[in-house]
């Protein structure tokens, strides 16, 4: 390999992703933004990920397809299978200075081994609480096994970056690695801001101006806490608290969610300015999920001046100031969630005050400053490896 670079403009990064653009989610949106930032600074980035004929959005940077198969029961997702000779030839030709892995799948493992054989540093970005997923599919007994597998993977990497301090602390307590930094998330303030609120659009959905709206935003999958969300709405209805529910997003659990919330408004997928309008049209954002490592949707709601009721879990704990910009409630505590929501639904002044505090807090999250942290970590690891050579 040529001499280790000392400047970002000279750096070549091989990025491995289990889902770079074929299904839209917060993690791959962050990865695409990171690639765009790196390329604007002059760095070269090559992405290795499954490819499909009709991806959810165009990829940023050159995307090299890796073999994959559809996941049983979750056919919208694909499982990367191997570093084929074709992919290995491409890697050799690209000659990266560092490898970035963003998913602990089979290809991620192979990428770490490939880098190790060439004495290249590896940075892993951790995007979700993978070990919590089995509990939503009646397989909680698998969590200790999955934790051990994740620990083996992440300890083979030179460093990790996590999207929130609360999640980084969890990773430290789980002994995943001893070099864990922060790569938080940003928000486009030109798009997500209180000025996007449009009462005429809400009326077109059959929502009266005076009716407070509880919003949900995200992929409609069970691990987002759809069961807790639904049970909480049932509790509000039993208490006779006036409200409407607006659900923004698509996913395989939509039919189940619609059956559980027959009076809710389902907008389907919203993107760009339409998404910002939908978020700003909420009066309180409810996020009961415990799987997020950061919570992009929570930050977008805050930027739009919407108070947040969230589970006191990784991600939300680093974003929401309890009793200042929202409420943090014990995960799964349906009565606690219902009480927090009731306060906002019945007190417009409280909504306005806490929503304003959240909008001010969201101004701290600028994408370029955030992505520079990852770029600086690349250079630190490359320089450290060069000294060890």
Record the SSE blueprint.
Layout: E1 12-16, H1 26-40, E2 44-49, E3 62-65, E4 68-71, E5 74-80, H2 85-94, E6 98-101, H3 106-117, E7 122-125, H4 143-155, E8 159-162, H5 165-173, E9 180-182, H6 199-204, E10 213-217, H7 226-239, E11 244-248, H8 254-260, E12 265-268, H9 272-280, E13 284-287, H10 296-303, E14 308-311, H11 316-319, E15 326-329, H12 334-346, H13 348-362, H14 367-388
Parallel strand pairs: 1-2, 1-6, 2-3, 6-7, 7-8, 8-9, 10-11, 10-13, 11-12, 13-14, 14-15
Antiparallel strand pairs: 4-5
Helix pairs in contact: 1-14, 7-12, 10-13
Which value, in Å, is the CA radius of gyration?
21 Å
Text of the CATH class of the largest domain = Alpha Beta
Helix-and-strand structural type: alpha/beta
Domain count: the total is 2
Q: What is the overall number of helices?
A: 14
For the record, give the distance between the C-alpha atoms at the N and C termini, rounded to a whole number.
12 Å
Which consecutive residue ranges, at least 5 long each, have pLDDT under 50? Answer: none
As a percent range, the share of helical residues equals: 40-55%
Strand content: 15-25%
Largest sheet: 7 strands, parallel
Strand order of the largest sheet: 3-2-1-6-7-8-9
